[in-house]
Amino acid sequence: MTNDVEMKENPVPSNPTTLTSHSTLHDLKEIAGLIETGAYSREVRRIMRAVRLTMALRRKLNSSVLFAFLSFALTPGSDAYTRISAYLPKEDEHEMEVDTATSSTQAPVKHPLPELEIYCYLVVLIFLIDQKNYSEAKACASASIARLRNINRRTVDVLSSRLYFYYSLSYELTSDLAEIRSDLLALHRIATLRQDELGQETLLNLLLRNYLHYNLYDQAEKLRSKAPRFEAHSNQQFCRYLFYLGKIRTIQLEYTDAKESLLQAARKAPVAALGFRVQCNKWAVIVRLLLGEIPERTVFMQKGMEKALRPYFELTNAVRIGDLELFKSVAERFSSTFNKDGTHNLTVRLRHNVIRTGLRNISISYSRISLADVAEKLRLDSPNPVADAECIVAKAIRDGAVDAILNHTDGWMVSKETGDIYSTNEPQMAFNSRIAFCLNMHNEAVRALRFPPNSHKEKESAENRRERQQQEQELAKHIAEEDDDEF
Amino acid sequence: MDPKLTEVSQLFERFKAALVRNDFDTCANLLSQLKVLLTGFRSLPPLFEDTPNAIHELTLARDIYEHAVILSVKTEDQDAFERDFFQLKPYYTDASGRLPQSPQEYIILGLNLLRLLVQNRIAEFHTELELLSSTALENPCIKHAVELEQSFMEGAYNRVLSARQTAPHESFVYFMDLLAKTVRDEIGGCSEKAYDYLSISDARQMLLFSSDKELADYIKEDHPEWEIKDGCVFFQKAKETAPCKEIPSLQLINQTLSYARELERIV
């Protein structure tokens, strides 16, 4: 904790900086201290906390604060300093000079830690992205990635995984994602070799995002199925992974698995990540419709999502009623939304479900109906509706969607009496699947009760406990903000 | 001009001439020579090196592979089609920024979609579909395949069959014929579940046979469980027997035991 002392000794800079920027600088210095202690004691959690704290400061950053911080963290005139500070816009020459001058006289001659250097890259990069200075951000990100390749320290992993994220983000914002694909793959390989699991997790997600951005589902699935899997380290990354997985599976028609992944992603995502949850819900609604389920009304009424989910609500309604005309008009009316969400091709697939629902309704309502009437009720627009209807009904019967018999000579569909469901094994099976679900949930909950390593060995001292509690509070507070930034 | 490029172009001209003559042996022979020669160019995928002749070479290579795909359709070789298509694909995706669009592109993509449909690889069909832009989806060749898939899923089989007449390109016909066979099996499968019986003439019409004898042969070969008597085809035997009334005791015991075990773990 020598750093704390050191920082208190720092006199208030003489130049007229505003109060906020001064306190921001102070906070940044504190974070730097945290990173140093973390690096020396090899405690990854301190660095994680530093990253979280940074996110809270994000909105307050400005270039003069950053210049001051850089000269504090890195020795002015050193290689790293000149390299990183080159990316910052030089808006305030005079003040900056004063700042560096004052700091350089005070800066203790210290060994520059790679962690601090990487952290400086991270802060500068975040600042550049927030300033929408994307070309500089790209240059800065690429430089930091090049630097990272030569550093192999576990304490850097947390910082580097954040850097990867912003690296990809800066390229995405200028829509040059395809450029960095091979770099990301190389980084993923490096992370795997160094057993940097957090890095692997982040990079895998970035790669999936990269592929899905260009609708390269095939490549994404091939990568996903071959990349090493392990227990998730970061909840956010895991949510994203589930979302991408759900998307891939939806496209490849594995609806049951897709639904599971998408719903889990939506549930696990933090409350603040509204945009992400809306996306998850959109896809989940479509997948459930494709499965022949009708999502409940509450899904569409979730707070803050009503407007975004409106097209999907209308779509659900059309499928529920089984009205092809309505379905067509909804699909046309919201086609731009569906195109934007990348769900257009999925809505095309839904047509078949609309017909099925309509058919089921007909078969329940009538014990015998002519095929011409079926065609009319389904509103099939084709040159030969009766023959079409006959084929469609025949297929529905084979797939078990309706229980009926066709009579070709008279052109009828005769619905079979619905048997007493309780005389079959059906209820037993339904109960079984529910019980299995509950038991599984319980088991997973037990398994999820994890304890930090070594907690039983040493009793925590009062100081440690205080720090831990403080950390937990911060975690709760910042996690929301962080997620907000990320999605 | 680069002598290697000239050699390839000349060989390719001979290949095209042979393809027009429908001289498939010569074609196959020339094609394998061409493919070997293409490996000598460093500007082609996967290297994509920026050589001075890059655009020319890429265009030529794309042209060659497009013809290779067409050839494979003509020789009705689905495996060769798949191979050649995958070799061609990088030219459409990765090199799209550098080359003007090929006039053949949509035909080839449509053919590929149709192939996936015929081979019943629906998941891959949809994966490919996602790669297409909305303008591509409007193209008649692509639209044809997409509508076919929809009709196929719905069960509107006669629409699938009538689509043969509206095929947007001559090379589609081969796959449409294959599709007709798949459709016949599908209709057969649906009919045996949906009808109790069909008159022979109706069955013949539905299953798209031109004579009763073909129908009889088909039944004998593919569906021996169908019965022909009194001028009708009966599907009775193919129906499942009455639902089993027996209690699935073993399954129930297993389930109950597992509940007991789990509950014990909780308490």
UniProtKB/TrEMBL annotation, chain A:
Belongs to the proteasome subunit S3 family. Gene3D superfamilies: 1.25.40.570. Residues 1-20, 452-487 are annotated as: Disordered. Keywords: Proteasome. GO terms for biological process: regulation of protein catabolic process; ubiquitin-dependent protein catabolic process. This is 26S proteasome non-ATPase regulatory subunit 3. The lineage of its organism: Eukaryota, Viridiplantae, Streptophyta, Embryophyta, Tracheophyta. Residues 239-420 form the PCI domain. GO terms for molecular function: enzyme regulator activity. It comes from the Eukaryota. It holds the Pfam family PCI.
TrEMBL record, chain B:
GO terms for cellular component: cytosol; nucleus; proteasome regulatory particle, lid subcomplex. InterPro entries: 26S_Psome_Rpn12, CSN8_PSD8_EIF3K, PCI_dom. Residues 79-251 form the PCI domain. GO terms for biological process: proteasome-mediated ubiquitin-dependent protein catabolic process. Keywords: Proteasome. It comes from the Eukaryota. Belongs to the proteasome subunit S14 family. This is 26S proteasome non-ATPase regulatory subunit RPN12A.
